[in-house]
């Protein structure tokens, strides 16, 4: 009998009960199903600044590639800081497979300094009626995403909370991870 090793992931579905392990002040940020960009902009009363840290092609790790059924090895990776008045609030890591940014999505995903949430939550683009897969995680120095974020943002706390969502843009998958930074707690979470 052949035994396959299961992938170990620090990510858990929002509805798994793991949400209640998160500190109370992060729970509504982690579980919110709307646009994080819009929610933060309402809280801060202004548009977010987007600082693009990286936008390049890169190989995926096995935890990331499982969202694409392991048939994709290399994708466009876009890492940004969402800031208010120069203060980073969220670090976002988006994985965009080549097929997802082709065809009619090509122009849409030429983002520049525009937040991806503005594209994903535009009423004309969100076609899927299906609820996107959303997971949360407590990240620490052992986690791959934490290490990747720390390379770009050395002020990342030793323990951080994050969520990631598998969105569909015109039927094509995009995986977005959002790491919440302590300055976000300076704003009301409605």
TrEMBL record:
Superkingdom assignment: Bacteria
Reactions the enzyme catalyzes: chorismate = 4-hydroxybenzoate + pyruvate
EC class (word): lyase
Main location: cytoplasm
Pathway the protein contributes to: Cofactor biosynthesis; ubiquinone biosynthesis
Compartments where located: Cytoplasm
Gene Ontology BP term (one): pyruvate biosynthetic process
GO molecular function: chorismate lyase activity
Keyword entries, A-Z: Cytoplasm, Lyase, Pyruvate, Ubiquinone biosynthesis
Binding site for substrate: 78, 116, 178
Chain ranges passing through the membrane: none
SUPFAM superfamilies: Chorismate lyase-like (SSF64288)
Functional note: Removes the pyruvyl group from chorismate, with concomitant aromatization of the ring, to provide 4-hydroxybenzoate (4HB) for the ubiquinone pathway.
Listed name of the protein: Probable chorismate pyruvate-lyase
Organism phylogeny: Bacteria, Pseudomonadati, Pseudomonadota, Betaproteobacteria, Burkholderiales
């Amino acid at each position: 009998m052949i035994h396959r090793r299961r992938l170990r992931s620090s990510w858990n579905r929002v509805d798994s009960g793991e949400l209640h392990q998160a500190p109370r002040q992060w729970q509504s940020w982690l579980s919110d199903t709307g646009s994080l960009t819009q929610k933060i902009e309402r809280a801060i009363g202004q548009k977010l600044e987007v600082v693009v840290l990286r936008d390049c092609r890169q190989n995926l790790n096995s935890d990331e590639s499982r969202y694409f059924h392991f048939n994709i090895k290399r994708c466009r990776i876009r890492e940004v800081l969402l800031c208010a008045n120069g203060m980073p609030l969220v670090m976002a890591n988006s994985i965009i497979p080549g097929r997802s940014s082709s065809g009619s999505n090509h122009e849409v995903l030429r983002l520049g300094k525009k937040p991806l949430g503005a594209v994903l939550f535009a009423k004309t683009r969100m076609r899927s009626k299906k609820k996107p897969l959303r997971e949360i995680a407590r990240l620490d120095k052992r986690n791959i995403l934490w290490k990747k974020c720390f390379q770009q943002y050395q002020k990342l706390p030793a323990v951080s909370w994050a969520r990631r969502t598998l969105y569909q843009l015109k039927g094509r998958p995009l995986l977005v991870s959002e790491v919440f930074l302590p300055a976000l707690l300076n704003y009301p979470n409605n």
